[in-house]
Amino acid sequence: MTDKGKLIIISAPSGCGKSTIIGDIMDRGQLDLQFSVSATNRKPREGEVDGVNYHFLTDQQFKDLIADGAFVEYEQVYPGRFYGTLRSEIQNRVNEGHNVILDIDVKGGVNVKKQFGDDAVSIFIAPPSISELRWRLKKRGSESDEDINERVGRAEFEMQFRDDYDHVVVNDTLPEAIAALCAISSTGSDIATSSREAMTAGIFGGSFNPVHNGHIALAKALASSGEVDEVWFTLSPLNPLKAHPEELVPDRQRMEMLKLAIEGIPQLRVCDIELSLPRPSYTITTLRTLDHLHPAIKFRLIIGSDNMLIFDRWKAHDEIMREYTPIVYPRPGYRWDGALPLPVHDISSTRIREMVHNRQSIDTLVPPSVANYIRHHRLYR
Ligand code: 5GP
């Protein structure tokens, strides 16, 4: 049976860049997303196409559909102007396993989320501030002062609903807002969901191909070092052009091994955010995106002494240094004075892959559940 798709509800006060963001995500084609075309009784604007931007209806047609129960929700968004989500736009697609994106007003968004519960993810795109919003609308130059006042007033009203949404993405810089949204909307996304309390999470990135006992021992030591409350294993995508064919284990399988490896260990979590970010994936984008998604959490970067020695080659290394103070762990052969005094484990994923390839036992090098997984799925042969 196909898994059902999700509804991705996106709402924002006007002027927050919602249509640009949605357009960009759809254009990337990275996620299996289909757009729910709403019905409205407003007239088409220049360039808008019936059935693509909206189903443009007469007042009477709209009323008839209400009477027929054809809408999942509808709202009078502006005086005399109705907009509604048609059941027919979402039902089949979701049942066929597609994710459906809904660009709807704030009240409609709250309403759909109430009806669909966990089958829907609701995202509120907020402007950095109301004064910034006013400035953006003025800069756009397409509205009169009166219109701007009306929209800003409406935005203030709509902002009151932000806490009713699952996620709030502040659109202060567009690329990061897009990245955050992509990450949230990503199919089967397993972004570790934050508790809303203040805490520090250490981001431990890698391709974990496969995850091994050295990784786990290190993460446990970091978690009890007092530097962080949690360690998030953050899976990076593999570069198909760089990897050997027998190394190319799909993201999903490396993720499953990670989950098996940390099962039941407190303070350790997995995070798949990088799988849905634009490639090549830069650590700074990952960290900023996590900040957007989890404003209450303080993130720090976990990094080996080998990488620390060449850190000045990393994109935005000074910002990472300032905002996400790295925690350095020792790697054999690479001395870094600020490294935490943690035991060094000389196990490598490369070596494990070679051993599997040569039919040698890896039982002492990876958790039993991971060894079984590798055997069962005949990986690295
Ligand atoms: P516009 O007329 O500028 O295309 O859209 C005006 C507002 O109506 C936007 O905030 C848009 O998100 C919202 N809207 C569009 N479709 C629907 C819908 O099906 N239901 C609801 N509740 N709002 C919608």
Summarize the helices and strands and which ones pair or pack:
Blueprint: E1 7-11, H1 18-28, E2 33-35, E3 38-40, E4 54-56, H2 59-68, E5 71-78, E6 81-86, H3 87-95, E7 99-103, H4 106-116, E8 120-126, H5 130-140, H6 145-159, E9 167-170, H7 174-185, E10 199-206, H8 213-223, E11 230-235, H9 251-262, E12 268-271, H10 283-293, E13 297-304, H11 305-308, H12 317-323, E14 327-329, H13 349-357, H14 368-376
Parallel strand pairs: 1-7, 1-8, 2-7, 3-4, 8-9, 10-11, 10-13, 11-12, 13-14
Antiparallel strand pairs: 3-6, 5-6
The chain binds guanosine-5'-monophosphate.
Guanosine-5'-monophosphate binds at residues 38, 42, 73, 75, 77, 83-85, 103-105, 108.
Structure description:
This protein is α/β, with parallel strands linked by helices. Helices cover 37% and strands 19% of the residues. The protein contains 14 helices and 14 strands. The chain has helices spanning 18-28, 59-68, 87-95, 106-116, 130-140, 145-159, 174-185, 213-223, 251-262, 283-293, 305-308, 317-323, 349-357, 368-376, and strands at 7-11, 33-35, 38-40, 54-56, 71-78, 81-86, 99-103, 120-126, 167-170, 199-206, 230-235, 268-271, 297-304, 327-329. A five-stranded parallel β-sheet has the order 2-7-1-8-9, with helices on both faces. A five-stranded parallel β-sheet has the order 12-11-10-13-14. Helix 9 (251-262) links the parallel strand 11 and strand 12. Helix 7 packs across helix 10. The longest helix has 15 residues, at 145-159. It starts with 6 loop residues before the first strand and ends in a 5-residue tail after the last helix. Mean pLDDT is 88; it is low at 187-197. Residues 38, 42, 73, 75, 77, 83-85, 103-105, 108 line the site of guanosine-5'-monophosphate.
